Amino acid sequence: MVATPLRRLPLKRALSALREAEGTHKLSSSVSGIAITFRPDGRNERGPINFLARVAPRIAYANPTLPFLVNRIPMPFKPSKSEYRPNVDPNAPVSEEEIARRAEAEKQVPSLTVSFRKSSECEEDGC
């Protein structure tokens, strides 16, 4: 099957892809969550975006109670959406808050984290 984002497929084919394609395995009950942090700009590989578009929906379908946390690292060279004003002079000096926000965004590192329960919790729940 061609790797096509699920949202572009007809419903029947999308459900079939969710059930039968690679990555549709039921995860161990010791897995407590999945978190992914990525930059939506072009500075990282397409891997995180492809994971979110193709693999994450299959994992979520096979594991409906598994929480997913998706963090987008803000782009340091663009103003945040709450501060966007179309009539602002682009040559105006940048505020101290904006400089601090950009510096903080530069420090964040893309990552994929799979969380597991403690072994004592697994013994109680029967993981």
Throw out a few tags for this protein.
3 strands; 127 residues; alpha+beta; 3-stranded mixed sheet; flat
Structure, explained:
The chain is α+β, with helices and mostly antiparallel strands. Helix content is 35%, strand content 15%. It has one domain. The protein has four helices and three strands. Strands 2-1-3 form a three-stranded mixed sheet, with helices on one face. The mean pLDDT is 73. This is Ribosomal protein/NADH dehydrogenase domain-containing protein. Residues 79-127 are annotated as: Disordered. Residues 98-107 have a biased composition (Basic and acidic residues).
Topology:
Elements: H1 11-20, E1 31-38, H2 47-62, E2 68-72, H3 96-107, E3 111-116, H4 119-125
Parallel strand pairs: 1-2
Antiparallel strand pairs: 1-3
